[in-house]
Amino acid sequence: SRDGGSPLRPALARVALADGAGGSPLALEGVVPDGGLDAPWGGGSDGGAERSSRGRGGARGPRFDRPIVSGGYAWWYVDALSDDGQHALTLIGMLGNAFSPAYARARAQGGPSDPLAHCTMNVVLHGPRARRFALTERGRASVHRTATALSIGPSVMRWEGDALVIDLDEATTLFPVPVPGRIRGRVRVIPKVGPQ
Q1: pTM above 0.70?
Q2: Bigger pLDDT: 81 or 119?
């Protein structure tokens, strides 16, 4: 790579999940253990470092207010796995929804396409008892962002000190489980210096 193979994740992260009903937090720490699916093009899938993070500016972590070109995308991705491997969480705050047929159509027409008109807080939860998925596309009026905070509808990602705090309140979709519901709760991601 052009950046000489510097680490993307210079520190490990600690994630605490609460069940939203006042239950005890589930601690998640470290990188995904080896032994998962193979990476494409013969690469490794051990969760090791990739390259340096970019765009910190004056914010505690990656800024939420960076400009996005017409037809472009910006996203913030959090992936976590419990120590016992039984529970997984994926969160993606997307400006310019990469999964949106409406945004794809707008981009294909060749004219200006506003990424802030197609935003979502994608949430996927996996566990032995349940799987939940949320992907509600929202328009520009539902998106508010500063250097340190991003709200898409009722869900918010924000930096509090050195922690990324994500408050979720999303309607589940009918895929993969045909039972409507909500995903509510708080996720706290705390960078922690660890072995490289």
Answers
A1: no
A2: 119
